[in-house]
Amino acid sequence: MGRNDTRIGWVVAGLLLGIFVASMDNTIVATAMATIVADLGGLDKFVWVTSAYMVAEMAGMPIFGKLSDMYGRKRFFIFGIIVFLLGSMLCGVAQNIVQLSIFRAIQGIGGGALVPIAFTIMFDIFPPEKRGKMGGLFGAVFGLSSIFGPLFGAYITDYLNWRWVFYINIPLGLLAFLLIALCYRESPKHAKQKIDWLGVITLVPAIVCLMFALELGGNQYEWDSSVIISLFSAFVVLFLLFLYVETKVQEPIVSYRMFRNRLFAAGNLVGFFSGATFIVATVYIPIFIQGVTGGSATNSGLILLPMMLATTVSAQLGGFFASKMSYRNVMIIFMAVFAIGMFLLSTITPETSRATVTWYMIIVGLGIGASFSVLGMAAIHHFSEMERGAASSTNSFIRSLGMTVGITIFGIIQRNLFQDKLNHLLKGIAHGGPVMSTNDPRAILSPEARAHIPSAILEQITSALASSIAHTFMWSLIPAALTLLFVFFMTNDRLTVAYASRQSAKIKKENAQ
Fold first, then answer.
1. What is the model's pLDDT at position 337?
2. How far is CA 119 from CA 32, 126, 136, 186, 494, in A?
3. Residue 26: alpha-carbon gap to chain centroid
4. How far, in Å, CA of 19 to CA of 242, rounded?
5. 290 and 449 in contact (C-beta within 8 Å)?
6. Pick from 356, 349, 342, 360: which is nearest to 292 by CA?
7. For residue 491, with 0-12 CB atoms within 10 Å meaning exposed, 13-18 middle and 19 or more buried, which class applies?
8. What pLDDT score was predicted for residue 485?
9. What residues contact residue 18 under an 8 Å CB cut-off, 6+ apart?
10. How crowded is residue 30: how many other Cβ atoms within 10 Å of its Cβ?
11. Alpha-carbon radius of gyration of the chain
């Protein structure tokens, strides 16, 4: 291995670390939240801890992607790491839930720069014949970190302290910073363009309104309350204004011209609906295992391990096959497997064994994993080096939006189904204890609560919970079917293109300088 290959290897390591910490922070806090609330208080505000990160990350993605096209990837990737580390340190010393929410937003700003720019740098530094393999590796780490977060968060909270959920980012982030700062040599060619400030000041508030409407609706406020209606109305007005602005400015954050490309447009729709479907599995499989089969909440993260490993394998396979056949054909195969896995999950009952659920999870993981690598490569396939940042960040933004919308909609469906069945059950019980006064399945069916529920009643509650989760998986077949449908609208482009040798020579020349 030559000196140049070694240097590129270190760059890849830095990029993978950046993807890992930024993606993991979407989920790592989930299993630590109960401990955080017990320590800091603010039970009525805990939803902001997760929402603040997601809002800032999603709003930042298209903006940083565009800026990286204009002024260079390296400076904005390093900026993202610095802001992310600053937010992590502040989160670790937060003294109340409001402070923690503000510091999580700072973290999210940094995270919004890391993931899309990392994928774009990968596409810049590798010739076409190697992008399939590297795209598979990047996609595997992205999928791995997203599922690994709850497991890591549970372990740190149980054996260290919840503050280490944030402190653990510091050594990993510093290493990523050093590797990119010292080893990545970027081409000085960038397009100097005008910044779309009108797009920024309309897009960011629009995303903020949408995210908080989805997070607070049905929890702290009723869906028909004036607060939620106002948030949705503000989102619609601001987003329509954003769309109008993007037609008028010289260099828009999100170019409509990109969506005229069928591969880009269809690939983003596949990402949206697959994200909305996959998030349902990651949330409700642990609830089924814990609530129906009596698994431990402490080990809830381990439940997703089979799906996590299958996702990692599939992401690598997707990247490999992308250099052998068209993006569309690769996605048809894997999305069909994904749809089959989600259908199998819709058949689970209280009698379904843990081993059977594990096989279903593996099928889901094998199906979804390829999308983490293939869709990222397809999104930037047709675009020049000056546009790849915007294309990659738009793809990441739309997938994240799909996950957010998906978990909100299916959360409402599952909650209402379970509550209806629970209310029906409680009508037949003359003296229901306080343990049955909530519709939170984790609270009702925790090991402590189960010990105080008569076995006959417990059996009915677990049956109601299993039924509500199975029906939720059944409803998720709608976006799963739409995912498969939109795959057929993708073009037959494949990773290795006619200008491969020319691009490869150009990249080798730039890296050698």
1. 95
2. 29, 11, 11, 15, 18
3. 7
4. 28
5. no
6. 349
7. middle
8. 94
9. 77, 80, 81, 114, 115, 118, 173, 176, 180
10. 19
11. 23
On the 0-12 / 13-18 / 19+ scale of CB atoms within 10 A, 248 is exposed
- 62, 393 contact by CB (below 8 A): yes
φ, ψ for residue 222, nearest 5 deg: -70, 155
Cα dihedral 32, 109, 138, 476 in deg (nearest 10) = 60
Residue type present at position 317? L
Q: What is the DSSP letter of 141?
A: H
SS (H, E, C) 92-138: HCCCCHHHHHHHHHHHHHHHHHHHHHHHHHHHHHCCHHHHHHHHHHH
Rounded Cα gap, residues 71 and 297, in angstroms: 46
Residue 221's DSSP bridge partners are: 217
Angle at 318 between CA 313 and CA 323, to 5 degrees: 135
CA distance 349 to 426: 21
Which two structure tokens, joined as six digits, stand for 82?
A: 């610095």
Closest by Cα among 122, 151, 172 to 18: 172
**Which amino acid, 144?**
L
- Per residue in 92-136, pLDDT (tens digit) is 888 888 888 889 889 988 888 888 888 788 877 877 667 677 777
Q: Distance between CA 14 and CA 78 in Å, rounded?
A: 10
d(CA 147, CA 422): 30
- Residue 434 pLDDT grade (very low, low, confident, very high; cuts 50, 70, 90): very low
- Separation of first and last alpha carbons in the chain: 18
Using the Cα atoms of residue 444, residue 104, residue 231 and residue 271 in order, give the sign of their dihedral: negative
Amino acid at position 465, single letter: L
CATH architecture of the domain with range 3-195+251-425+465-512: Up-down Bundle (1.20)
pLDDT at 81 over 90: yes
Task: Render pLDDT for 496-512 as a digit per residue (tens, 0 to 9).
Answer: 654 444 444 444 454 44
Write down the pTM of the prediction.
0.77
* Higher pLDDT, residue 360 or 448: 360
Please report the beta strands in 218-268, taking only residues with DSSP state E, as ranges in sequence order: none
User: What are 487's two structure tokens?
Assistant: 């795959």
- In the chain, % helix, strand, coil (3-state, to 5) comes to 80, 0, 20
